[in-house]
Amino acid sequence: MTETTPMSDARPDEGLRVSDCPDWLYLLREFDTLYRHGSAGGSRLIRSHRKRVRDTLSQIIDTNPPVTPRQPQPKPVTAHLSRALDLGERGAVAGMARALSRVTGQLTWEYGYEKVPKALARKYAYCEVLGPRGPVASDRLVLGSSSLRRARPIRSTAIRRSRRAISRSRVRGRRTIPPCMPPAR
Fold first, then answer.
1. pTM, whole model, 2 decimals?
2. What is the Cα–Cα distance from 23 to 27, expressed in whole angstroms?
3. DSSP code per residue over the chain
4. Do residues 124 and 52 make contact, with C-beta atoms less than 8 angstroms apart?
5. pLDDT tens digits for range 109-154
């Protein structure tokens, strides 16, 4: 594994760009992959939105935007983030989980609310990766991640939902397989 300079050691006057920070660049490319190969659920509106996001993201990456280090700020729910990323590496979002795990120590987690109920403060937080408040600056698009602690195991919920989706999904007479399950051979 290659070592990268933590963003907290960088000074803003260095003029870091996304091409100087490969971990951030790879994470942005994983967002592109997610929007390119993820399911639109058969919706024309969602499909066109996903295309607009991909096109805008490609344009932003081509401009080599500045990377502005922010002070990392964890929240209580981020204590569960490493486990969530471990589970993510087993599924369809493995690339995203690996890319996100390389920058977790540099993320600034927020609530997005002025007054946060105590119960929500322990169970929820989000961070921007690309956007006005993200380390990769952009005023054209906001991409990020959220962390939500679940009361029940994630795996059993995912399996139950996948089985239900397979049994009920029909698109033009064909059975569809959700992206979280590999097609049967």
1. 0.72
2. 6
3. ------GGGS-GGG--BGGG-HHHHHHHHHHHHHHHHS--TT-HHHHHHHHHHHHHHHHHHHT--BB-----B--GGGGGHHHHHHHHTTSTTHHHHHHHHTTGGG-B-B-S-SS--HHHHHHEEEEEEESTTSSB--SS--EEEEEE--SS-HHHHHHHHHHHHHHH-EETTEE---TTSPPP-
4. no
5. 999 888 989 888 889 999 999 999 999 999 999 999 888 876 544 4
